[in-house]
């Protein structure tokens, strides 16, 4: 099932004229330059809760072509000493020494582990290593509630804010008939805070 919905989008940017801070070292990065099926797995594992649907219909050749593009840089993050991926980000080189953070996110099991900020620091640092003088990204109202505050805390600024409407799947599963329970965003308990 799918439904038509209105989506808010924030277009953000950051100047990278000086070297960004070095991440703390809790996360190890590995570039992903092959294995389209692994990238598709990451796209669904990270993006399903946030309704990432734009690439769901891609075939193997499209994923392979993306990973073969020398202007696209995909990195998988791992918590030091652990083999499970914690998330990924995709950087895309644009003209005028601009790098777009095309995709960024954590697998749901890693959300709440205080890794998002450091992982974003890695993405910013990798964009700088590529030679970017400016970094851009888009985030939307379907993303995690901490996404926009995380970007702003790292120095991004809102360049534009707009809306569009599209047909969005109600539920994205890792494979047909998987019946994986939906990811639930924990909301702060505002009633107990008022009572204290």
Kindly report how far apart the N and C termini lie. Answer: 43 Å
CATH superfamily: Gcn5-related N-acetyltransferase (GNAT)
Sheet of most strands: 7 strands, mixed
Taken in chain order, the helices and strands follow as EEHHEEEHEHEH
Unreliable segments (pLDDT under 50, ≥5 consecutive)?
Answer: 190-196
**Which sequence of strands runs across the widest sheet?**
2-3-4-5-6-1-7
Rg estimate, integer Å: 17 Å
Report the β-strand fraction as a percent range: 25-35%
Number of domains: 1
Q: Output the structural class.
A: alpha+beta
Shape: globular
CATH architecture: 3-Layer(aba) Sandwich
The level-1 CATH class: Alpha Beta
Describe this structure in words.
The protein has 196 residues and is α+β, with helices and mostly antiparallel strands. The protein has one domain (2-174): 3-Layer(aba) Sandwich (Aminopeptidase), CATH 3.40.630.30. 25% of the residues lie in helices and 34% in strands. The chain has five helices and seven strands; from the N terminus they run ββααβββαβαβα. A seven-stranded mixed β-sheet has the order 2-3-4-5-6-1-7, sandwiched between helices. Strand 3 and strand 4 (85-94) form a beta hairpin. Helix 1 (36-47) crosses helix 2 (60-68). It is globular, with a radius of gyration of 17 Å. The termini are far apart. 22% of the residues are buried. The model is unreliable at 190-196 (pLDDT under 50).
């Amino acid at each position: 099932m799918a439904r038509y919905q209105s989506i808010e989008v924030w277009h953000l940017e950051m100047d990278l004229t000086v070297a960004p801070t070095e991440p703390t070292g809790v996360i190890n990065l590995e570039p992903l330059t092959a294995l389209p099926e692994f990238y598709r797995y990451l796209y669904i594992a990270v993006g399903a809760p946030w309704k990432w649907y734009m690439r769901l219909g891609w075939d193997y050749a499209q994923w392979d072509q993306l990973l073969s593009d020398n202007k696209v840089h995909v990195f998988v993050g791992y918590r030091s000493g652990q083999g499970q991926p914690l998330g990924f980000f995709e950087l895309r080189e644009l003209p005028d020494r601009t790098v777009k953070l095309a995709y960024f996110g954590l697998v749901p099991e890693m959300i709440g582990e205080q890794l998002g900020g450091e992982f974003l620091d890695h993405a910013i640092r990798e964009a700088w290593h590529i030679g970017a003088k400016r970094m851009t990204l888009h985030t939307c109202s379907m993303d995690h509630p901490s996404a926009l505050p995380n970007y702003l805390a790292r120095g991004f600024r809102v360049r534009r804010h707009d809306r569009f409407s599209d047909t969005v799947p109600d539920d994205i599963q890792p494979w047909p008939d998987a019946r994986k329970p939906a990811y639930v965003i924990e909301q702060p308990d505002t009633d107990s805070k008022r009572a204290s």
